[in-house]
Amino acid sequence: GKPTGRGKCQWNDGSSYHGEIKEGEAHGNGLYVAFNGNKILGAFEGGQSDGSGRGARRYPNGDEYVGDMKGGTPDGLGLYCFADGSRVQGEWSDGWPLDSQHLETGQDADPQYTWDIPPPVPAAPTKTTPGGPGVPAKKPAKK
Fold first, then answer.
1. Which of 44, 69, 103, 134 lies in disulfide reach of 26, CB 3.0 to 4.6 Å?
2. Cβ–Cβ < 8 Å for 19, 28
3. What per-residue confidence (pLDDT) applies to 84?
4. What is the DSSP letter of 3?
5. Mean pLDDT (whole number) for 42-69
6. CA distance 118 to 17
7. Long-range contacts for 68-76 (Cβ within 8 Å, ≥24 apart)?
8. Taking 50 as the threshold, does the pLDDT of residue 142 lie above it?
9. pLDDT tens digits, residue range 12-48?
10. Nearest-angstrom CA–CA distance, 98 and 77
């Protein structure tokens, strides 16, 4: 039969899964690392994840997010790192900051936002672009 228990799978594109397996598929708790470096640590069923759990995501524009995710979107406690080096930590809902704090240059993130994220967690930059991008104070009303 197909393997069941704990194990590791590696694919030709460089992506991997390490965790619980049922009938040869990711099923239960595990860590999936995509070929592009995106990670999700959470529950899997039938070889699939809904993108919820703790994770790290790199966006095409160079931004990165590490923390709680729901459906692959920042949701819960996390750290958002903009491509220009500015960073925001705090609580997120559906991709928007609810209660957040801009970090100063050289200031490390509070470990409560990144404590169980598999490395690498983005380090505090030594230099950022003046001002950095604005972050919405709250989610805009839907039209």
1. 44
2. yes
3. 87
4. -
5. 88
6. 13
7. 68/92, 69/40, 69/42, 70/94, 72/40
8. no
9. 999 999 999 999 889 999 988 888 888 888 888 888 8
10. 10
The position carrying tokens 């709250």 is 138
Main-chain dihedrals φ then ψ at residue 134, nearest 5 degrees: -80, 150
Question: How far apart, in whole angstroms, are the C-alpha atoms of residue 68 and residue 77?
Answer: 5
Q: Is cis: bond before 136, omega within 30 of 0?
A: no
**Token pair in block for residue 45:** 């069923």
Assign residue 11 a region (left: φ > 0; alpha: ψ between -120 and 50; beta: otherwise): beta
Q: What is the DSSP string of 54-76?
A: EEEEE-TTS-EEEEEEETTEEEE
Dig out the tokens for 138 from the structure.
Answer: 């709250």
Residues 36 and 16: beta-carbon distance below 8 Å: no
Structure tokens at 79: 């750290």
Residues making up the chain, counted from first to last: 143
Per-position b or e across 26-41, b if 16+ CB within 10 A of its CB: bbeebbbbbeeebbbb
Percent of the chain scoring above 90 in pLDDT: 18
